[in-house]
Amino acid sequence: MLDWIIQPLSLTFMQRALMLGILLGILCAVVGSYMIVQQMGMLAHAISHSVMAGLPIAYVVGIALSFGALIAGVISALMLYLIESRSRVKTDAAMALILTSFVAIGVTLVSIIPGANRIDLLHVLFGNILGVTMKEVWWTLAVTVVAITLMRLFFKELLFYTFDPKGAQASGMPVHFYNASLIIAMTVTIVVCLPTVGALLVVALLVAPAVTAYLLVKELHQMMWVGSIIGSLSSVIGMYLSYYLDAPSGATIVLVAFCFFCLAFLFSPSEGLLVSFWRKHMRSRLSMPS
Amino acid sequence: MLEIQNLSIDYRGTLALHNVSFFVPAGQLVGIIGPNGAGKSTLVEAILNLVPVTQGVIRFKGISLKRQLLKTAYVPQRSYIDWDYPVTVWNVVMMAQTVQTGLFNKFSRQAKHLARTALERVGMYELRHRPIGELSGGQQQRVFLARALAKEAELLIFDEPFTAVDRKTEDIIFDVFQELRAAGKTLLVINHDLGDSLAIYDQLLLLNKRLIAQGTRHEVVTSDNLERAYGRGLTRVFA
């Protein structure tokens, strides 16, 4: 058993992947917790796909691909906000439109811009955590530290804003600033996760650990703590499974995270499905006349 | 004290409020009544700077209210809040002191004392560690009342505070309203009910896009005014 654990650790690419996986588990749980309570899951899905439009443009302009992805993600969120606030178009329709249009922009530009076809769209869609560089690990560490520091500094303001946006605005808080900051934090997290799990699965990493913690705890900061542990564990277990089963790493990590969710859904002490059944059953047995 | 002049609000081309003007002296409890879609919530949201005002002036103690939002407290409609949000009663009440405390600062002892006193006043201090979602509708409304009290505001605005509350909560809300009025605070309360509960208000504002009537209950709740606000059907019910 010990060998089973230690053997992959001797490989440099596994060491890097594990470090990155643990960092992403923490980062995604912290940012994802706000996403869950703000019901921004679908927005994250739209942004995760929209970032593809920025890749070929960044390639042409000669800036880092991740920076192009970040700008495209923020622009897509801005366009969504504009369409929603300035027309009768509902959120889901606007998201479907923006998501597909930005993917179309990405795919079209990759084929027509000379040289842009070097961008591996399959890699963008599915990611590959085993191929990450040490530079990417350092970047992820920096983003995680900055994100946690900011969330901690603004915790009471973000708690008020995400719980009662109208009340926060009525108190004179700059709610548009907090909304924009959360969207930017989410977009940055998505971009950082792209090389690991890819655009198709990144939302799962943001949602699954945080929503699992949501079923287990009663306060936002506990959601972040428990979510971070679940997220990091999902990454590590997923990576080992991926190594030994020769399965795609991103998908394996997401599946492990989903298993944690299923366990919480069934066995959460406060609201687990089976726990509730069991309690009801015991109550009816106790109330039956002997 | 609260002065509204020629307030008009257009929302995406639809007229929500037209040329509403009124004045509320300090220490008054004012009820806002009117049919669904009359613009009652829009009026209080405009006062609190939550919706853009097309035209008009909103002043409190002679100064634009926009510049002194810290003097206001707001209890929104129940439907605006996600009651499954993972937050405890204590942290909801502490939100009252978030802006006063300032960025990067921890809540002071004084802020915590205010929250404790407010929770004790509404009979919810013992339940301060409970998640807000585990409370009854009445208890949740009392927590929001405590949050408004903990802000020590001068102008308090309540959007349908009596919806889905039990008798005990209703009595506590009535008592707190009387205490606040006696302390010289100004209270605006949106009330859905046209029955005996209107007796508690010093004056009523009857709205339907425009201000139909303002005055005491006897001056406002007349068949003529109700017909202008609600149409003929309701007038017959009240006649």
Automatic annotation (TrEMBL), chain A:
Gene3D superfamilies according to UniProt = ABC transporter involved in vitamin B12 uptake, BtuC
The organism's place on the tree of life at top rank = Bacteria
Task: Indicate where this protein resides in the cell.
Answer: Cell membrane; Membrane
Q: Which organism is it from?
A: Leptothoe kymatousa TAU-MAC 1615
Q: Which residue ranges does UniProt annotate as crossing the membrane?
A: 17-37, 57-83, 95-117, 137-155, 198-217, 224-245, 251-278
Bilayer topology = Multi-pass membrane protein
Q: Which family does it belong to?
A: Belongs to the ABC-3 integral membrane protein family.
- List the keywords (alphabetical): Membrane, Transmembrane, Transmembrane helix, Transport
An example Pfam family from this entry, by short name, is: ABC-3
The identity of this protein, by name, is: Metal ABC transporter permease
TrEMBL record, chain B:
The answer to whether keyword Nucleus applies is no
Keyword DNA-binding set for record: no
Top-rank lineage group of the source organism? Bacteria
InterPro entries (alphabetical): AAA+_ATPase, ABC_transporter-like_ATP-bd, ABC_transporter-like_CS, Metal_Ion_Import_ABC, P-loop_NTPase
Q: Which UniProt keywords apply?
A: ATP-binding, Nucleotide-binding, Transport
ABC transporter domain location is 2-234
Fetch the PANTHER family from UniProt. Answer: IRON TRANSPORT SYSTEM ATP-BINDING PROTEIN HI_0361-RELATED, METAL TRANSPORT SYSTEM ATP-BINDING PROTEIN TM_0124-RELATED
What family does this chain come from, according to its entry?
Answer: Belongs to the ABC transporter superfamily.
Know the name of this protein?
A: Metal ABC transporter ATP-binding protein
